[in-house]
Amino acid sequence: MLTNVATGTGGRVTVKVYFFYLISLNYVGFTSKYDTMTAPRRSRRKQHGSAGERGSTMESSSDEEEARTFIRVLSEKYNPENFPYGQGVVVMPSPPGSPVKDRLFLPSILVLNYCGITKAGDRSDIAAFCSHVVELDLSHNQLSDWAEICTIVSSIPHLDFLNLSMNPLSSMKLEPSMADVFSRVRQLVLNNTHVSWDTVHTLTQHTPELDELFLCLNDYNTVLESQTSCPSLRLLQITDNQLQHWAEVRKFGRMYPSLCTLVLANNSVDSVNDTKETLQRLFPNLRSINLNNSGLTKWEDIVRLNFFPKLEEVKAMGIPLLQPYTTHERRCLLLAHLPSVSVLNGGKVSDGEREDAERFFIRYYQDCPEQELPERYHTLVSKYGHLAPLAEVDLSPRCTMVDVRWGDRVEAVSLRLEQTVGDLKKHLKTLLQLPTNGIRLFYIKREMCSVLGPEELKCGTRALHSYSIRDGDEILVVPKVKSRCSSSEV
I need a surface site. Which of 32, 110, 121, 122 has the fewest CB within 10 A? Predict the structure, then answer.
């Protein structure tokens, strides 16, 4: 955008407005009132011309108003008027010979979500604005035509990340002849687009550098297998779909042979039903699998996770198999079943925690009948031997017998040590018919009475067990002596 600034000699100097964030990432991803701002509405009525001309003009003008193009939203959101000086805008001299003298200088990461975009707009304008853009978020718009999306993408030659989530793409098919424009994309997000598997395969076949693919919330209950693999893909996130059978999951191994991370959370996958040889062949590079809230019900399925040759991280929370166990039991039993896993449910596993879990596993199963013992039990017994059960230690306060002395009267009284001093006074009032407000209590330790002497029990809220009272000790009850001082003596 050009600005003319008057000089003292009557001439003018041309300067260019550059937009940038004050942070080094050069990222503009905030939500503001400008995200959904509309351009000033044009008049629907011409001042001159026939009625037919006016009607034709009104219809054309209305179409222009309703169409929210990518380039129009871009111009609105990054309009200089939306950024007062001192808040992200700098005025600098225009570079000599600049080929783009009237364009906004945009950040390399564009977030244009929730903007109602339906069309691309002028291709040359997109190219002029976005030649340096590497990440583009178009989620939550109204893009339903792949031709419009391709127009946008083809005009951004360095695009690395593209988010099309929440756009209505279910009814449109991407033609292979158009898909080459996605060739540089490495991260592609298609969540909740209900895009067809045919379109997914068209995209993966034309993105030779694709590294991450997100297909969440698309209501897939089957996987249409592609005959052409995508060897570059390393991460597949396909959470919150309707996949139930491992036979569908198995197809990912054939389509994406380099897969390192597979996120299957919130599907109903009910088993890991493959042999060791098959899993090693299909998933030779898998290092992380997320099975949270899946339908696994057997320990055999957990054991088969060990067949993935490079698996290091497992997430398996919220599965039916673990519901009967406590939180501690779940983690210990999972760890003992997965000797090669170094990260479980997001937490790193230390050597000490693994050993404790494996010892817990032995003690958990050692009283089971021989035919019910899991194979892992025998492996761990050969490592640690047969372990004795842990001793049960009761740390709860107990009762004790003490002698309560009141003058010449001595009574053997059973004390509950969780009681407080105040509770003891009430107890003695009932037992010995004593006035609670007129007595003092002293604790005499039998073994140390000649050294320590009596200790007064002053604090009414203090628990008796904190005094380390033992059987045979003595509680001395002494009446309070009220001091009587006249005013003349004070």
Answer: 32
